[in-house]
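This section describes the prediction task in plain terms. A model, or a person checking by hand, is given the sequence of a single protein chain and must write out its three-dimensional structure as a string of tokens. No templates, partner chains or ligands are provided. The sample shown here is typical of the held-out split.
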Amino acid sequence: MTSSQEELLPGTRRALLHRIAVAQAEGRAPSLVATVVRGGQAVWHGARTSVDGHGPDENVQYRIGSITKTFTAVLVMRLRDEGLFDLGDPLEKHLPGTGAGEATIAELLAHTAGLAAESPAPWWERTPGTLRPELSDVLGEQPLVHPVGRRHHYSNPGYTVLGALVEELRGASWEEVLRSEILEPLGLHRTSTQPQAPHAGGWAVHPWADAMLPEPLEDLGRMAPAGQLWSTTGDLARFAAFLAAGDDRVLSAASVREMRTPAAPAEAADVLDGATYGLGLQIQRRDGRLLVGHSGSLPGFLANLTLSVEDDVAAVVLANCTSGPLLGAVGADLVRIVAEAEPRIPEPWRPLREVDPAVLELAGQWYWGTSAFGLRVTADGLLALGPLSGSGRRSRFRSNGDGTWTGLEGYFAGELLRPVRRTDGTLGHLDLGSFVFTRQPYDPEAPIPGGVDPEGWRGIG
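The expected answer:
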């Protein structure tokens, strides 16, 4: 991926630089680096540092903490796509004896498996991984703190378990599988489990004084799949582009889209915050846009990757301090700045290459009871159903090749849309999951459940 600073307008570049400058200064970060991605390419890189005459570039490594989990999730989805398991399979079926085998693979990915947030003491992020050589050392005597599948409870041990699952099914270490199946195909040559020069040092900044303390650097051992990786803004820019569009060498666009789909029940506070979790990806609504990605932290380091698929803009922000700048807010602001200053130019409208008369006949206005809906044939060959005014149930439908259609999202996801014809062959109504859609409100010629009053429509008198 090449970086082209000229692709963004001067005013946009200055706004981006101002945002990270404020974050570094107010957050008192020894250094902070950021990159913006648009159209699958890095289009801006910025850095602020406390060292005069030095600005880390897009090739300097920082520890990225829990962004590592997204890499692990991609490996798990690859195994699923190869048919080695279903996401609904219990862990016990493929990795027996953990004590958490009731949880499904999907629940582990979405942090709904009921596992504890951390491994037993001492705190794993600041102690050697050799203290936890076995999976049982990571999970402890009582791995579950909540009923399986009932709530979203972020779990670092859960991703250690997923890393062990990858090792079990691949017959190789998590690190080896990661390198051969993700890092090498995507060209992430500056992403590694151990730091490689040039890399930043990790620091703690005193909360009440402008003084710093070096943080210890530990190999996380078994916990590596939850947070071991080091990377750069350049590599994470490539990874962000992959999370937006997929790459058949690693994971299809459909499977990446599945990762970006909410998979966890939201807590009340999460509903208020507009946040939830997919399969290895955090999801939030901010400034009116849907953002996906992941944050990360380990002693001495903070990291964030934020992506707006609709705007086709992503941001990566890395800092070498234990706490301080709120990188999630910074990443979201960088995306917003570019999306608002230089909004995405849509592709030109083009008509369908071919028009199927039987499909075209379905298009137009339909009524469910007295509620008016429009059914459109889209350029990608789908049907799109939505209310003609106000809010209501919306969905797109994919052809099944036999005249029926299956809902792809929303209330009608998985439901069957079936055109029903009269005895003379003309289109009578639509049957959608038992709902009858007609061309006129309560059409007396259609099989309306409960029937239609024979006297028809009338006034008050």
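For orientation: The radius of gyration is 26 Å.
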